[in-house]
Amino acid sequence: MNRSFSKIRHIQEANQRLEKRMLSEQVLGPERLSSPAGQENKKQSEFFNKYYKLNLPIDGNWLNPEFNKAMERYLKEKNIPIWVCKKGDGYCSNDGEDEGVVTTQEFKRLRDSIAQDSAKLQTGKINTTYDKSYDYKLENGKYYYSVKGQNKWVESTGDGLVSIKKNVKF
Q1: Which of 10, 51, 162, 170 can pair with 125 through a Cys bridge, CB separation 3.0 to 4.6 Å?
Q2: What is the pLDDT of residues 8-51, one digit of tens each?
Q3: SS3 call for 125
Q4: DSSP class of 64
């Protein structure tokens, strides 16, 4: 058997990721990962990935230490009170499974803040009314077009770019 060290390392890392995922599923279980809390965690993970340019798994696992670091960082930045779960605290799960999870008791404030910051991440101006076939976007000084409603943006060049600059209002 002639395997390279990089292949062996890749297999070991893949096995570690699989083991980690299986352990989190055993702790939380598939029903809890797909619960409303799990669904909320998926949305928050997606947001943190965009906001902080992270690579958190979108699996609904609120026990993930990297997710909790991102949550704590965000709550601190937004001056939202932090709550760290403890067994028997009357707020998190009573069985202690959530011990150490970073959260807040001000969910509405957290959701509003995430919604506001998500809107800011949607940089660029979009014109959907110029014609019936295409949508147009101006973002970071570049012009893009997409088939109406597809949101698959292609950077404009040549005569098309000249036409968009001249005719489409943003």
Answers
A1: 170
A2: 777 777 666 655 555 454 456 677 777 888 889 999 999 999 88
A3: strand
A4: -
